[in-house]
Amino acid sequence: MKIPAYSTIRLVLDEGIGLLELNSPPSNAMNMEFFREFGEALYFISLCGEFRALIISGHGRHYSSGADVPVLLKEINENAVTDKTGKLLHIPDFLSKNYESFLLLESLSIPVISAIRGVCLGSALELALFSHFRLCGEEAVFGLPEASFNLAPGLGGMYKLCSMSGLAFALERVLKGSTFSAEDALNHGIVDKVVPKKVLIQAAYDFARQVMQDFRVEKRGLYIKKYLS
Amino acid sequence: MIHLNDSMETINKISWEIRNDIGILTLDNPPENYLFQPDFVPLDTLKKWTSYDYLKGIMICGAGKHFSGGGKLENLFRMIRDREDINEKMGKGKAVLEHIENLDIPVIAAIQGICFGGGLEIALASHIRICAENALFAFPEVNQGVIPGLGGTVRSYMKSGFPRAMKLILSGDMINAEDAQEMHLVDFIVNKHKVFDHSFTFLQKLTRDRPLTVINAVMKALKNARSLSMEEAMKEETRIFCELAVAEARRRNGSGKQ
């Protein structure tokens, strides 16, 4: 089956393992077009039948710097329906579609592995948190900086961080909006393995080949013990 | 916005004061800060204290060397002898802890010395626990033939998992700060002379650059993460984000559009 072409994503398939790269240089910011194409690509991957594992990474030096905030604010302001007091009556459809994409990603029956190098911020970290596994380079930088723009994470980042690393860590990181290191992420259960960045993609492919043999999401902990520790 | 120290209020050996925009609730019955009853502070009083609209965080601590030795079980047994409705009392105690847990500003328990029984129940209902290296934790209720009754069994299970919560509750044994951290019952261990300063500063750093709307939004979303299914929590998170985004977009535009 021919893989569609996208403008903000590179998708390749090799021996059953798909590599989806965020591709909006230099920092792979997630704009409106990315979210639209990402939803389409996921739909394609889930129906195509030839993907047995999926690796998500960023093209170039970074995973992604997250959503383009000014554009997002403009789109939301134009599409949100509020009453006279400013109370929200309807979430814009494109936002609902974004979190539905993340839920679809997590519900895929093939292993989804995020391979993270460079920055992984905001919505990009949320995307990574909805992958089944996370491998990262030693220099990777994580964060949910939304609060410093008077916002909050909006695509499940708070839910995931809280369930993975506990209330205190989530509360501190989200309210301060400060970044944290690969080591911190590993210690708080946010990434599963840290490797030198030069071998990151190779490590993700090796792990994909091992885990795709008999992948079942409820055995996540077992695969991590067996192949990543 | 800087507020001068409000005067201190006290009820049932529980004190309340506000410094800048942080509320300080002190278990004020030294040396062990024993609690008189399950609702150690009346819910109405607590609601009044925590309803100041400039409050950005709360620190709970004990006066002197200890956090709290918990409730005096003899008091509880006396209430039972006197045929007071113990179930109603416990219900009131649980409502107080639920109010603390559900506040949409961060609550830190600053713990030193002993943190037993009801004291530990209060700490577990807080959002963040910072303790001194010399802190000691226990659920000693089992030694008197009862169990933690204000949600402590559930909250310790949620944080530590079944085997470790079972051991803590069934043995009644004391554990030290390190073990408590290992069990996820505390989040940070600090020098024993610095618990209050550290906790207070931590709260200030967490909240000082953030408007109350953002703090409330984050706390609400994190509460949903504990109480709703993932799908519901995500939908709410997106809704909360969207409300903040609309407000921020309008703030940046300098005008409102409806």
Give me some keywords for this one.
A: 229 residues, alpha/beta, 6-stranded mixed beta sheet, 9 helices, B: alpha/beta, 7-stranded mixed beta sheet, 3-stranded mixed beta sheet, 10 helices
Write the layout of secondary structure elements.
The complex is a heterodimer of chains A (229) and B (258).
Chain A: E1 9-14, E2 17-22, H1 32-48, E3 53-58, H2 69-79, E4 81-82, E5 88-90, H3 93-107, E6 112-116, E7 119-121, H4 123-129, E8 133-137, E9 141-143, H5 157-165, H6 167-176, E10 180-181, H7 182-187, E11 193-195, H8 200-211, H9 220-228
Parallel strand pairs in A: 2-3, 3-6, 6-8, 7-9, 8-11
Antiparallel strand pairs in A: 1-2, 4-5, 9-10
Chain B: E1 9-11, E2 14-19, E3 22-27, H1 43-49, E4 57-62, H2 73-81, H3 86-102, E5 107-111, E6 114-116, H4 118-125, E7 128-132, E8 136-138, H5 152-160, H6 162-171, E9 175-176, H7 177-182, E10 188-190, H8 195-207, H9 212-227, H10 230-253
Parallel strand pairs in B: 3-4, 4-5, 5-7, 6-8, 7-10
Antiparallel strand pairs in B: 1-2, 2-3, 8-9
Helix pairs in contact in B: 5-6, 9-10
As an assembly, this protein is heterodimer
Hey, roughly how much beta strand do the residues of chain A contain?
15-25%
Poorly predicted parts of chain B:
none
- Topology as H/E string of chain B? EEEHEHHEEHEEHHEHEHHH
Strand share of the residues of chain B? 15-25%
Q: Strand arrangement, largest sheet of chain A?
A: 1-2-3-6-8-11
Q: How is the biggest beta sheet of chain B arranged?
A: 7 strands, mixed
Q: Would you report the number of β strands of chain A?
A: 11
Radius of gyration of chain B equals 19 Å
Which radius of gyration of chain A do the C-alpha atoms yield?
A: 17 Å
Count of alpha/pi helices of chain A = 9
Helix fraction bin of chain A: 40-55%
Largest interface: A-B, 46 and 50 residues
Ends apart, CA distance between termini of chain A? 36 Å
